[in-house]
Every structure is written in C-alpha cells, then in structure tokens.
Amino acid sequence: MDIKIELIQEPHLEFNGCFLHPDKKTGITEYGPFGRTDPALHPEKIKVGIVGTRETNELCQAWIEECKHYIETDKSKKEEIEPEEFLDEDSDQVEPEFRDVLVKGLSPDFIGLDGSTNFNSSIVTSQRWISTFQNREAKAIADIDNSVERVERVSDLLSSKIEQLATDTPHPDVILVTIPEILLKNSTSAKLSNGNYLDLRRSLKARCMKWGVPIQIIRENTLRGKGKGLQDKASRAWNFSTALYFKAGGVPWKGHGLETNTCYIGISFYKTEDSKGRSIIRSGVAQAFDYLGQGVVLRGDPFEWDSDEYGKTPHLKQADACRLITNTLNEYTRISKLPPKRVVIHKSSRYWNKRHDEYNELDGFIEGIEAVNPQASIDLLTLARSKIRLARVGKYPPIRGTFALIEGMTPIIYTHGFTPYFETYPGVHVPDPWVILERHGDSGPRELAKELLALTKMNVNNAAFSDGVPITLAFSRMVGNVLKEVDPEMTVRSEYSFYM
Hints:
The chain is an alpha/beta fold and about 500 residues long. The protein has 13 helices and 21 strands. The two termini are about 45 Å apart.
C-alpha cells in the first residue's frame, strides 16, 4: 500500500501593518487588529449597552474596566523542581517537590482593549445604555413549576430590556446580557411536547435580530470568575474583546493565503415548525465567508423530507439547490461589490446527483454558481471525521497540519494535534483528522487540505490559536440552532454577528 505523508505548514494571519503571524493574540499584541488598515473595518469606539440586575450590571461594568487594562495570565501548571546535582551518598531519597509556574505560551497576557494599546479601540458605556430588572422578578420566574413557561418568561423579560436599549437613539453597538445564576439554574432549556427543546440562548438571539443590535450573553458566574472549566482571566479577556470588536464592526485578523475573491459556503439543515405548527425542514446556508472572515447568513426555503423513503439525511431538489446558491452568491456580490471568482461549498453529507432524479443537488449547486458567474472555479466538498488514525513516535499525537494520501482511500488532514508553535499538544483527547469524503471541482486534495487548515483559524468568536473545525462547518450548526427559534414572520439578519 502506497502512503504519502506531508506536513502542511501552519497558516498565518494578517494584522495591522501587513504583519504576519500564526497566533492571533501575538499578532494583535505586536501590531494590532487587521481592521486598523482601513477605517471602515475598525471601530475606534465600541458603544456597549448592559442588561441585567443591578448586581450583575455592576459586575459587568467592573469586568469592562478590567478589560481596558493589561491582565497577566493566571494560568499555571505544576513543575517538578530538579534535585541538586550532587547529594550526600548517605542521605535519604528526597521526595519530589513541585512549584507553580505560569503558562504564558498557551495563555499569553492580555494587552487591554483601549485606545492606548495596539487594539486602538475603546469601550464606551453610558447610564442611558443600562437597563435593569429586579431580583424579585428573577426569583418569581425561577419559582415557576412549568419549565417551558420559565424559559419563555426569561426570554420575554430579557427581550423587553434589550428592546429598550436597541430602539433608543443613539443606540449601542453591542448589548451585553448579564444573566443572574438564579435564572440559569433551571431556565436554560426546556423540552417541548413535540420532542424539541426550547433554548434560552437561541431564543434570545432569534428574537433580538429585528432590532439590529448584536447581543453578547454573559453568565453571572463568569463575571465572578467562578464555574467549572472556566478559562484563566487573560484568556477570557481575549475572547471577550475580540468578539466585542467584531460585533462592533471590526475585523480582528485576515486569513493570509485565503484567496481574496473566493466565497466559502457552509450548508446545513435543521428542523423547525411552520406557521401552523407542522414540523418542516429548512436548508440553512450557515455562512458565506470571505478572506476577512466576514459572513452572510441565508435561510433556505422550507421543504418536506420523507426519511422512511429516502433516509435520515436530507437533500435538496435540483431547483432548490440552484435557488439557494444563487441567492447566497447574490447577497455575497451585493456586499463585496463583485461576484466571486471561486466558490467553495462544504457539507457534512454526500452530494446527491443524477442517479437520485429530482434530488440532483450536485448539478443544482453548479447551476446556481454559473448563474452568478459562469467563469467561476468550483470546489464542492463533503467533510467528515476520519476513522483512520496515524501514530507518531513519542508521547504526542501527529502534528497539526499532517496530510496523508493513502492508496485507495480519501485524503485526511489533522487540524488538531501537536502544535510546534507551542511545542506541545494543546488538547486532552486523542485528535481525529478530517477526511475529504467527496470532492467535485478544480482543486487538488493538497490545496484543499491547506485551505481547510487556514479556515480553522477564522473563528472571530474567540482568540484561540485554532478551533480544529473549519469555520464553514463550525458555524453552520450554530446558525442552524438559532434559526430553529426564528418564526416564519420574524426578521432574519444576514450578518453572522447576530448568531455568534
């Protein structure tokens, strides 16, 4: 069996001053976000509104003040102290001793989100952008026996407060929703009679789209620095600040090596209900991304799917696939001012073709692309987790970027694994690679794998080195989850800052 293994080099990101670096935090620390290269992509002031109780709002304002300044990481690990080189031969065996050392490679210090740092962007708050509700209101909702009613009442309460700020003039750029633990204890989700779940986070995101101001949900315990699995303070500040910067219209980093005129599309499906309460399936284009990480979201038309006849995984009819991609690319063209020269589509399911009669989505997607730009290059991929594992000599898993072509099998790429930049594996579980299960189009497997690796660094919802999941797939599920809660008459925003 012929096996070819190659290491694809870590993709870089571009920051202010054309500075290239593989790490988001280092790039912003050294030169600042990419948005600073263009005033249209950089908010010098981020106007922030706050919703919560008097206490959670006070905690949030304290956290904002902290994030304006330098925060040293408090993440540490145990390190064994080396014994003295020469010990007296008659001495007893010395028990190993350990000391706490800061881990600044994986968790670098936070520089501060302020005009005086390389972020060059300041958070602005005002009393007119603060809306409060009483503790007794929260307690009264928490005491409701019916779980569905509890979630609905919490959503009603918070939505009404968000509306006050979002519809005021002038309104903030982003609204922080600080939810007290008494409301989160039993009110984050509830099972509906049809077997689906009503989710508080999704419901809030869906209901608040119509007011045109993105929201950011923060737990009370997170503001207090409590909670299981909570990241160190510096990492929380990095993630909070980059997400806030993006939601206010900034571009934290640019994907270096991603083609400027390429549209990256992720497609997902989700179940919801129509206006009569009937269960339907919608196709949701989670994102149409460009090299800046800017995305647009489109909701597809509803359709019925007979799982008994065709299987559990839904597929589009040829005409529906064509219309979905045409609409997506037209929206992309409207924003980008030019149609894409190349279109890449990622799905987690196979592409049905002519053998499936009217469900020939493969030709439908191609027709949709050609309707917008007949000359565009095309790459249609099915991505899945591979059952194949590669072993590496030593204690660490394969290096992130390991690409393998195995005779008679589909190509695989490790987007998570030992990371040379950190000189360690920043994970817990054994990483599983991605397999390019199916591909149609113009590019070779290595070029596609290299692109996948770069797309794992485009998540602007946090400042992690990479997610291990291409942005097209990572957010397709997130967007689908929010769209589940969007009723037919509700506003659907195309900007993906309303879904993250």
